[in-house]
Amino acid sequence: MSKITKPSLFGIEKSNRDFTQKDSWGKNKFNSSFPVSLACYMGSKGLKPKYLKLSDKMKVVHDFITVENLFGLKFDSKNLYFAFESNYVPYQKFVSGKTPRIDVVTLDSESNFCQRGLEIKLTALPDNSTCDYSEQKYGCEIVTRPNTIVYMALNLSLAFEKDMADVKEFLAPFSRINDWTEGFKVLPHLPKMLKAMDDLLLANLKKQKPLVIQPIWKTMGKSAQLHKDCFDIFVWSDFAFTRLFFDVAKTELDGNRSVVSRQVRAVVWLTKMLLDFSVNGKIDYNKVIDELSYNTKNDKAFSVNGRVTQPYMASDELLNPRIKRNELKNIILGGGQNMLSPERRLDGIIQSSLDLFD
């Protein structure tokens, strides 16, 4: 095997990023390109990412997904093209206005056909809420942007395109809400809203698809030292990811709440977007997010810490990630580590671990 002499990332042969340029290693770009490369590397080793999906018991269950099924093409296909921060064209017909950019779109470069639109959430293990626990209880914080809720709504719209009448039937009662902008008018509907959305998902479990790639990187407790068992990938289906905010929202049903929490708001956003889709065939996501803010900033949809995510993700792969620390040099190639402009914790730790590339 010839030695790679120019900065690059394993498996990313065709993309809209030039990894010989320093700009492609900074401004948070590394947070989406490194996970894609990690997935390709796992594929080359015959390893399948962990797949979290929704069961008929409305619980998150574990499976595995091949990298080929994740990307829509084999990781080493000469036609596999990665378009980072790009529009997933199949969404456009459901959107009023511009289609929001998603973290990565995979395409067949020969046919120019879109294969997958995927969100990427690179997460540290453990997070601040679990770093003092035993390793068996380590968890990752997941911060979710409003656009993730939009992608979820659009993914579901794509899945339900031929069954709009069914969606409308499940969500019809909420057409009677005369003012969605007032939290006190929406909150009384929350129990039925959660039930209707769960029923809709339950009736269509076979339509769930991968949406969120969540790579993990493990450190030695609170330290800035990479654990020897360092990297792995979890993939959430669009249906399974709803549990991260639905389940929290359900715990808030007890008592008389007058404030709309971020998780409750995310439930309302998703319901309203799907209701609009079922009625109009279009989603004006900017209007939904802007007008249904409920006096809370829209910088993020919600976040959940490691204590919340750990029960969903608990597995051998979370306890002992399958890619070793010393394999980092097989993923970041050609001196790419020297191009990093640390803006996030992983970038900085890699730069302080340059001995791994010797």
Give a description of the structure.
- It is globular and about 65 Å long.
- Helix 4 packs antiparallel against helix 6 and helix 6 (190-202) crosses helix 9.
- Strand 2 (50-54) and strand 3 form a beta hairpin.
- Helix content is 33%, strand content 20%.
- The two termini are 17 Å apart.
- With 358 residues, the chain is of the alpha+beta class.
- The protein contains 13 helices and 13 strands.
- The chain has one domain (8-357).
- It has helices at residues 30-44, 67-71, 146-159, 164-171, 183-186, 190-202, 238-241, 243-251, 262-280, 285-291, 306-313, 316-319, 345-351; strands at 8-9, 50-54, 60-64, 80-87, 101-108, 113-120, 123-125, 142-144, 210-219, 226-237, 302-304, 323-324, 332-333.
- The strands form three sheets. Strands 2, 3, 4, 5, 6, 7, 9, 10 and 12 form a nine-stranded mixed beta sheet that branches. A two-stranded antiparallel sheet has the order 1-13. Strands 8-11 form a two-stranded antiparallel sheet.
Question: What is the compact description of this entry?
Answer:
The protein is α+β, with helices and mostly antiparallel strands. It has one domain. Strands 2, 3, 4, 5, 6, 7, 9, 10 and 12 form a nine-stranded mixed β-sheet that branches. A two-stranded antiparallel sheet has the order 1-13.
